[in-house]
Amino acid sequence: MVKHQENQKDISLKIKEARRLFILSCEIVLLNFLGILPVTAATEEPVLSVVYGQENANQWRGISDRLQTIGVKYCVISLNDVKSGGDWGDRRVLFLPNVETLTPTQAIALEDWMSKGGRLIASGPVGSLSSPGVRQLLRSLLGGYWGFSLSDTEQIQAAKTKIPEWTNQTGLFGKVRGGVVIPNDMGTESPAVWNSKDNPAAVVTTERSTFLGWRWGTDTASAAELDNAWLKTTINHYLTALAPSNRTKKIAGGSQSCSTTVAAAPSAQGSRGAGGQGGSSSPLSPSLTPPKTATAPIPRALPMVKPPSSQEAIDQLEQAVRLDVAPNSNEPIDHNQAIALQQELENLIGRVESAHLAVLANAANVGETISEEKQSSRHLNTYTPQSLKEQPTQLASSKLGALAMSNEQALAQVRVIAKNLPQLIAQKNYALARQQWLVAKTTLWQQFPVDRKLAQPEIRAVWLDRGTIVRAGSKAGLAQIFDRLAQAGINTVFFETVNAGYTIYPSQVAKEQNPLIRGWNPLEEAVKLAHERDMELHAWVWTFAAGNQRHNEILNLNPDYPGPVLAAHPDWANYDNLGNMIPLGQSKPFFDPANPEVRQYLLKLYEEIVTKYKVDGLQLDYIRYPFQDPSAGRTYGYGKAARAQFQKLTGVDPVNISPSQADLWQKWTTFRTEQVDSFVAQVSQQLRQKQPNLILSVAVFPLPELERIQKIQQNWETWARRGDVDLIVPMTYALDTSRFQRLAQPWIASKQLGATLLVPGIRLLSLPTIGAFDQLQLVRDLPVSGYALFAAENFSNDLQKLFSSTQGRIQSTTSEPIPHRQPFQTAAIRYTALQREWKFVFQNDQQQRPSQKISDFNNQAEVLRSALNQLAASPSASKLLVARASLTRFQSQFRVLMSQEIKSNSYQVKVWENRLVTIERLLRYGERRVQLRPL
């Protein structure tokens, strides 16, 4: 009986204990459901810091209201005060809502803070208005970047590859107005996608960051319930990933101060809003009154914006930018990423082999003895004549000081790595897979031939920037620059002639020559220097950008100074919807393109340049409006003339309409776009009347067409189709070749450019020498006629030496044609180079081909060669028809003729097809250029 009573008592205690545990579990679930985070509830210590800045100040009430609803305690960090990693605070999680501009210093500080264990949540187009280097670093930190805004509200839904810790949460999915987030290739997951074509990512997450593709905290973007659900889930995701003892652990070196409201947060510009902690909120400060609407653009002061310092560690930033493939990361690699990694290696192998083939075929052409001994492998890299083995081609590895290996050994090693990569990934050995991939990439880069000519006739352009011109200081200094460029094979110079409203030369039209130029005329001297070296000189002009705060800093002027032209003619200025000349986060005031006096001034200025100086071309830069985001309420174009003209057309002042008024907004967007379109047409027509041989080019942004028109009103496809411009130069700047290809490929493949030539831009800043060469080789393997390098300031001695060897001038009595000047001659020479490669492959390959097949191929190839040569020698409409017909016939049968090569080296066959397309485009451009028309 006693024993039974003891058993009953023991059972009763266990039931009570179980009840207590059940109640505790229910309490924890309830706390999580209500958004009261366990770590916060237990410690009363904030675990979250929220960043406040100028760009989210007008949204702060919505942000703080949502934080109050969640009940999470947080610290407020003023973005203006962030100068180092410690300034991001010592809390474990940082929330960066809707901040589009970070300085290089702040971006580097953020990377430093995250490297110490900090976790980042970001929303909206983070960093999209920052410098290219900042954007690149943020892509690495966030696992992706804001691609473009969606035009309509879309449904957020779980990704097909469901991630339980995200998709099992409630309240995460619903209607949102946001943008597409482009994930990086490696280490990134997309827990939510948009319910639209191809299901693009709405959210991307990594081990240390989550990026929400909408403006969190704004009622126009999303419901408060959905915002709160995502923030709660994300904070819990990062805190529960830590051991309980580490959840309250602070970030080493982070500032311990915790301001709980915006008013209390230290700021260089004082309090500008309100914030809250644990349910408290402060009233809005007077500075957050409703946004003002722009009125008639009478003269007014520019907003007080501190210009970014030219010394803000930009070099350090670019070096800090990591590629997507981190060597020691063991984050999972999914199927698509594995395919992408393998494909990038295959493409790089193809580029290396293509470069070697060009070298060997060219060497054979100039008379080096080619051995009849054939190689055993079918890959093109093994076509190495004995004479060239005795005097081997110098590879990049020998110049880089690396351990040398033969080209055959290196390629064999890389092919083994590429073959084994899927197995390593299947075994979940992700870190080793990444390490092997990087070894393979480095090995391939070292195999590029760097001491023999391999380039064919192409546009080799460089932007010669104002800073480099100023530093030259005289004709003698400028001559040294042109000598270096000429030795490197550069044949076209975009010479910065109008910058920030100043001309580089003494003008009778412009208000003021650049004050940094004293006692000489750089444009006059540059034209002479270029022509003496058989180079073309194109005047590069800022079109609608009228000033530059960074330039003001160099000149020790007030940051508010709008430039000499707008200072004299304030009615010519353009404004944003808040009445500011310079949009928030930007540094340049703009002219109003709708103003007839502005247009007349610019036309008169350009006419002076092309008639007084013997320039070969004119390049229009800033041929657009400044960047805007209508979905965020940031628009531009409200100059006095534009408002009056639009109101006359529609009866409505454009300051009184918004993107929600679809029809009117589309008319307003079209009106602004047409101001730019019509000005390009006017420039083309009037200047060609003065100088018929003028080459007109435009430097443009490679954004998708619809997004570009919405954001900057730049519709360059229209200019190309109409024949207004000769060259489209997209600024396809990237720090690695795969990204460069993704940026450039859509425009290279575009059918919307008519007869206009496309010349991709390559940014040299922080790009390794051999990395720049790799991008050039890609350009040569694609159907384009050349490239443009930005800028002369970054044209290093190493790059100059490499270019001199691979594309520099060979002493001869005839100069090499430039495609935009002599398209038919260029087409004929480039085709002859193709024939040399085919002949070299056939002679040195062991594949047994039927003699009749080789004969048929050679006969058709020779017919095309003859037609192109006759057209080049004496252009006429009839010869152009014959050449086109021969080319079309040859292209239609090319893959059949190359069926065996497709099996052994499909990349090289595609390269040859691309080069035939380049010839086709040169013929089309040449027809328009010389106005050949059949009778």
From the alpha carbons, calculate the radius of gyration and give it in angstroms.
31 Å
Poorly predicted runs: 13-17, 20-43, 263-323, 368-391, 399-403
Outline, from the CA principal axes?
A: globular
- On the 0 to 100 scale, the average pLDDT is 83
Overall helicity: 40-55%
**Strand tally:** 23
Number of helices: 31
Strand proportion, as a percent range, falls in 5-15%
Termini separation:
122 Å
Structural class estimated from helices and strands: alpha/beta
What does this entry show, briefly?
This protein is α/β, with parallel strands linked by helices and 935 residues long. The strands form 4 sheets. Strands 14, 15, 16, 17, 18, 19, 20, 21, 22 and 23 form a 10-stranded mixed sheet that branches. A 9-stranded mixed sheet has the order 2-1-3-4-11-10-9-6-7, with helices on one face. It has a two-stranded antiparallel sheet with strand order 5-8.
Q: Care to describe what's here?
A:
With 935 residues, the chain is of the alpha/beta class. It has 31 helices and 23 strands. Strands 14, 15, 16, 17, 18, 19, 20, 21, 22 and 23 form a ten-stranded mixed beta sheet that branches. The protein is globular, with a radius of gyration of 31 Å.
